[in-house]
Automatic annotation (TrEMBL):
Keywords noted in UniProt: NADP, One-carbon metabolism, Oxidoreductase
Span of the signal peptide: none
Gene Ontology terms describing biological process: dihydrofolate metabolic process; folic acid metabolic process; one-carbon metabolic process; tetrahydrofolate biosynthetic process
Species in which this protein is naturally found: Adineta ricciae (Rotifer)
PROSITE patterns, A to Z: DHFR_2
Pathway: Cofactor biosynthesis; tetrahydrofolate biosynthesis; 5,6,7,8-tetrahydrofolate from 7,8-dihydrofolate: step 1/1
InterPro entries for this protein: DHFR, DHFR-like_dom_sf, DHFR_dom
MF terms (GO), sorted A to Z: dihydrofolate reductase activity; NADP binding
EC number(s) on file: 1.5.1.3
The organism's taxonomic lineage, starting at the top: Eukaryota, Metazoa, Spiralia, Gnathifera, Rotifera
Protein name as catalogued: dihydrofolate reductase
A GO CC term assigned to this protein in UniProt: mitochondrion
């Protein structure tokens, strides 16, 4: 896909790029981090628009269980190898108007671009929500403009889900202006439920 970077990533990871274990995040609930990624991914300047969320099937299934006040702000682009028929059979409770099912990251990126660019676009921004392959592919294909990174100050070497390709070369860590959403949290170190972490924002350096 030949296009300028246009996506955002929201991700929490430890010092060795661990993101998950056995279907869950490997740390205790981090309430301020929840506020951080939910606020960024659900807020739009135009209240009539939604943000598109690109997610693998497992991450989508988790996100779809969130409170309706968040779910109703997202348009899902779900990556799965399942046929459309099988997917909608097994996810029959989902409102179909706000979901696109695709079979590769490339197809998901194309769909996101189309939704953003159509004349009466109802999508304002695009966020990659995970898991491993969607994050890695977005970075590898140089489609990411901004990263909202929650860096957990631990090294969890025995976890199942870790990003092996997440190279921040070409990105610079930024301090956002005070009128940007939750910018007061940038670089802030927080300790919650026994876990220490920090919010970092990166932008492609070009
Ligand atoms: N720390 C964080 O910020 C964060 C964020 C998200 C998730 N997580 C954690 O990460 C773990 C889940 O990771 P995951 O990588 O297994 O989840 P995932 O990417 O959400 O889901 C994996 C599934 O997505 C589909 N998929 C993903 N990429 C695909 C591709 N390129 N082509 C075709 N299908 C694709 C496949 O579905 P089918 O099986 O249907 O074909 C695959 O089985 C959990 O522990 C979760 O808690 C952490």
């Amino acid at each position: 896909m030949n296009t300028k970077p246009f996506m955002n990533i929201v991700v929490a990871m430890d010092k060795v790029n661990t993101i998950g274990h056995q279907g869950k995040v490997p740390w205790a609930p981090l309430p301020t981090d929840n506020k951080w990624y939910l606020t960024h991914s659900t807020t739009t300047k135009d209240p009539s628009k939604r943000n598109a969320i690109i997610a693998g099937r497992s991450t989508f299934e988790d996100a779809a269980q969130f409170d309706q006040k968040y779910v109703s702000r997202w348009h899902f682009i779900v990556i799965t190898s399942q046929s459309l028929e099988r997917f909608f059979d097994t996810h029959s409770n989902i409102e179909r108007d706000h979901i696109d099912v695709v079979h590769s990251f490339e197809e998901g990126a194309q769909k996101a671009k189309e939704l953003l660019e159509q004349p009466s676009a109802t999508i304002e921004s695009v966020y990659i929500f995970g898991g491993v392959k969607p994050y890695e592919e977005a970075m590898e294909r140089q489609l990411v403009k901004r990263i909202y990174l929650t860096r957990v100050f631990s090294e969890l070497n025995d976890c199942e889900h870790r990003l092996s390709k997440f190279d921040l070369n070409g990105f610079k860590r930024i301090k956002r202006s005070s009128n940007e959403l939750l910018s007061e949290y940038d670089d802030k170190i927080i300790e919650e439920n026994g876990w220490k972490y920090q919010f970092e924002v990166y932008e492609r350096d070009d």
